Amino acid sequence: MRFVHMADVHLGAVPDGKTEWGERRSRELWETFASSLQDASDLKADLVLIAGDLFHNPPDTQMLREVSYLFSSFPDLCIAMIAGNHDCISKESAWQGFRLPANVALLGSEDCECITFPKINCEVYGFSYDRAQITEPLYDGIMPDQNDAFHILLAHGGDAQHIPFTVQAMGRSGFDYIALGHIHRPQMVLKNRAAYSGALSPIDAGDEGPHGYIVGETSGHTVSLKFIRKAKREYVSMNVEVSEADTTFSLRDEVIQAIRERGPENIYRIILRGSRRPDAHYDTKLIGEGGLVLSVTDLTKAAFHLDELKERYRGQLIGRYIESFEGKTLTGVQQKALEAGLEALLSVQGEDKG
Ligand SMILES: [Mn+2]
C-alpha cells in the first residue's frame, strides 16, 4: 500500500503577516494543501495521513466547510487525521458536531482510537488534542493490537508542552510506522519507522529549508519513505560579503543578483558580513528592496587602516589615541576596545565636519 503523510498545514495562518506578500502566502497555504491532495489522488495513494495542526487556530465552521469541500472533491482518497495543539478540539469548538465527509476519519480526543481499513489491511491509531498544551507523555504505552495488519500511529508533539516522548519508547511500541506532526522541519526520528513530514509549507522564518510531504510504500511490515518537496517557497538566511568599496546601491545590486541565483520565489533574511569603511553607513531598507526580504542585518566590521588614520590625524585626539595602543600586543577585547573607540571618535569627527 501507498500512503501520503503530511502535517502542520496551518490553514488560516498569515505567514510574514506584516509584509506586502503576507495575504498571498496565506492563500498559498490553501493552494498547496489542495494541490497535495491532488498529488495523493494522482499517486493513487491508499491512505492520506494528516498528523495534526491542519489549521493554525481551532477552525470555525466556515473553515471546516472549506476543508470538507476539498476532501469531498477527492472521494477516492481515504483520509485519517488528528487535531494538534493549534487546532485542538475543545468543548466549545466548531469541530464538535461537525460532520466531515465520509472519506475522512478524524480520530477524536476522548481516548486513543483505532480505525481499520480492511481493504488495505491497515490500522491507524491516535487521538486529537483537546487543549493547546498536554504535558503528559500520553503516547507511552500505546500499543497496536496483535494482528497482521499494518499498524500506523498518528502522533503530534514531542516537546515538553506537547506530549513529550522518547525515541526509545517509540521504537519499542510495535507500530510499523509513526506519522508525526508538530516539528516544522522534516526529519526522520526512527529510520523508516517514525518521521516528521514537517510543515507542508514553511510558516515562519525559522522554518528554513525545503517543505512538503512524505510518500510511504509498504511491503509487508516494512516501509520505504520518500520526502516530496512541495512548498513553493523556502526561507533562506543569506550572507552577503561586504568590502570597503561597497555602497548601498552596489549592495542592493549584489542582493538582487544573489536572490536571482538562489530563487526569486524564496523569502530572505539578508546578513551583511565582511568589512566596510569606518565611516560607511548602509541604508538596509533600500538594500532589501530587490526581493521578498524580511530583514537586512548589518554585521559588517569597520576596517581600520591604523597607519593611514594616524597620519591623517597626527597631533589630534584620534592620532594620539592610536599611538596609545602602539607597541602592545592587543588581546581580542583590547582590539575591540580600540575599534569601538575609533568608531566613536571618527563619528564625532564626521559630525564636526558636517
Ligand atoms: Mn503543533
Quaternary state, please?
single chain
Order of helices and strands: EHEHEEEEEHEEEEEEHEHEEHHH
Strand-pairing-aware structural class: alpha/beta
In total, how many beta strands? 16
Percent helix among the residues? 25-40%
Q: What Rg do the Cα atoms give? A: 28 Å
- CATH class of the largest domain, anyone? Alpha Beta
Describe this structure in words.
This protein is of the alpha/beta class and 354 residues long. Helix content is 27%, strand content 25%. It has eight helices and 16 strands. Strands 4-3-2-1-11-12 form a six-stranded mixed sheet, with helices on one face. Strands 5-6-7-8-10-9 form a six-stranded mixed sheet. The longest helix is centred in the C-terminal third of the chain and has 22 residues. It is elongated. It starts with a strand and ends with a helix. The mean pLDDT is 93. Manganese (II) ion binds next to loops.
